[in-house]
Design brief:
Elements lengths: L1 E5 L3 H9 L2 H34 L5 H5 E4 L7 E6 L12 E3 L2 E4 L6 E4 L1 E2 L1 E2 L6 E2 L8 E3 L9 E3 L6 H5 L2 H27 L1
Antiparallel strand pairs: 1-3, 2-3, 4-5, 5-6, 7-10, 8-9, 10-11
């Protein structure tokens, strides 16, 4: 998934086509700089609503969203992300009576029959081999050693293009991009 910041007005394209090669190159360079400046601000502003929307803490969201900057030959700044269903490990899980409680999307969720620790009660302890993941017994009621990792249902790519994160993106593109492009045009034509 990706969000794309571009300024592709027909009048601007006609103006670039009507300029000499050197002037058109200078204009494209200035426009790429304006797109990169606005794109970096949008990237920074997207992180808090995306954290709140997903329920993730720390730098997890920041590591998931990447920039591809604009250049003279490519007048587009894109924010890309990829990834699948995020494990419950990243949503502050803790064992409760008969299951695990975690907070995907900031909502307290109870997963019946899930475990973080291993061993018999009262000597249950975190097993290093489980790496802090949340698992569920898939062998039925009796322990036969078959477990499956429990996922949260949160996908960062989906969350990036909906809700508060998408609204922040659209608001900032509408308010910040036209003035930045105007400044770039003013600097080239002056």
């Amino acid at each position: 998934m990706r969000l794309l910041v571009t300024f592709d007005a027909a009048g601007l394209q006609r103006e670039i086509a009507g300029l000499e090669a050197a002037e058109a190159g200078r204009l494209r360079t200035r426009l790429a700089g304006a797109l990169n400046e606005v794109g970096a601000e949008i990237h920074k502003a997207l992180l808090p609503p995306l954290r709140a929307q997903t329920g993730l803490k720390g730098a997890t969201v920041a590591r998931a969203v990447h920039d591809i900057g604009a250049a003279g030959d490519r007048l587009a700044f894109s924010l890309t992300t990829r990834g699948g269903d995020i494990s419950l490990k990243y949503f502050s899980p803790r064992e409760a009576q008969g299951g695990v409680i975690a907070r995907p999307r900031g909502v307290r969720t109870y997963v019946q029959g899930a475990v973080l620790k291993s061993g018999r009660s009262p000597n249950r302890a975190y097993a290093e081999r489980l790496h802090g993941q949340v698992f569920r017994n898939v062998a039925g009621g009796k322990w036969r050693g078959r477990i499956r990792k429990v996922k949260s249902g949160v996908f960062i790519p989906r969350e990036l293009v909906q809700g508060a994160a998408c609204a922040t993106f659209e608001r900032m593109v509408a308010s910040d991009l036209p003035p930045a492009v105007g400044r770039a045009l003013t600097l080239v034509t002056a």
